[in-house]
Design goal:
By secondary structure, the protein is of the alpha/beta class. The protein is 35% helix and 16% strand. It contains twelve helices and seven strands. The structure holds S-adenosylmethionine. The site of S-adenosylmethionine (SAM) has 21 residues, from strand 2.
């Protein structure tokens, strides 16, 4: 195990169960890409849905080079990338202290912008299941001790609970099959500290009159079949039992996108600090 790996593991409080480090070649590539504190593991499998449905977007190195273009990401979101990125960042905070977890790399400059909001002693961990994505992100970030890129699976973070003040899921949930989506939300809730905030930005079912609804239906049908679940259900319905999930929801672009904010609250019981997951209070006006 490299010193970098130890650092990252200690910092994130993550114990990668039964996983072995990747070979030297992968680690060397990580270092040359400027990936700091990379907890590489050779034994972490690529989820089947990624290999089967998203090989062209994330898995293949050529795909990464092709798709990580600001104008293309923006076009895929009909010109809404900056708006949705900023909606996510604003929900995380104008300035961001403490520990933040971004689950899944994101094309474009979301992580760079997130980093710019970090206070001096803040920490940002970015977890992705694909080394090629972490390498790509590492190349885009300047060296920064506050930022760690970690190899891990959203549905099983193998990390101690109650570690983070904020967790961000940006356009991740619609890609996942239901069981893994539930697991990823369960993990996000589990690793949040009491009082911590979960921020989700993803697709949302627009009204029948939305001019892009038929097009998005075809896109989902041919490319992103699990996204239909986010049209058919509220995200609350995938949250862990007992989380009593009520999100503060805001929709964008005529209801095609949504931002959800959920806060894990701690309630002290008579016998000491008893943690309970409960509803978040409305903290912003519903969208007009
Ligand atoms: C978060 S989504 C973001 C999609 C968005 N359209 C963009 O612009 O990148 C895609 C990222 O999530 C990662 N990812 C997908 N499933 C994952 C999982 N189970 N665990 C960790 N990362 C995952 C992919 O490797 C990819 O880097």
């Amino acid at each position: 195990m490299t010193a970098g790996m130890t650092d990252a593991r200690d910092r994130a409080g993550c114990i990668r169960r039964g996983l072995v480090p990747t070979g030297d070649a992968v680690l060397a590539r990580m270092r040359s890409a400027g990936v700091h504190r990379f907890t590489a593991t050779g034994a972490l499998p690529v989820p089947r849905y990624l290999e089967r449905l998203y090989w062209w977007a994330y898995v293949h190195p050529v795909a990464v080079r092709l798709f990580d273009r600001a104008w293309l990401v923006d076009a895929i979101l009909f010109g809404n990338f900056a708006r949705l990125r900023d909606a996510a960042l604003d929900a995380l905070g104008e300035t961001i202290s403490g520990r933040t977890l971004q689950v899944g790399c994101v094309y474009g400059n979301l992580t760079q912008r997130l980093r710019e909001r970090l206070t001096g002693d803040a920490q940002l961990d970015v977890v992705d299941v694909l080394p090629v994505q972490l390498e790509n992100l590492g190349r885009k970030l300047p060296p920064d001790e506050r930022v760690a890129l970690l190899h891990g699976d959203a549905s099983s973070l193998a990390c101690a609970g109650a570690q983070y003040d904020r967790v961000l899921l940006f356009f991740l949930l619609h890609e996942m099959p239901e069981n893994l989506r539930r697991a990823a939300l369960g993990e996000a809730v589990r690793v949040l500290k009491p009082g911590g905030r979960l921020v989700i930005v993803d697709y949302h079912l627009p009204s029948r009159l939305h001019p892009l609804r038929p097009l998005m239906h075809q896109v989902f049908r041919h490319l992103e079949p699990h996204a239909f679940d986010l049209w058919a259900h509220r995200v609350e319905q995938f949250m862990p039992r007992g989380a009593q999930a009520t999100f503060v929801k805001r929709t964008y672009f005529g209801g095609l996108y949504q931002r959800l904010v959920w806060t894990r609250q701690a309630v002290s019981g008579a016998s000491g600090a008893v943690e309970r997951l409960m509803n978040v209070k409305r903290e912003e006006a519903p969208p007009k």
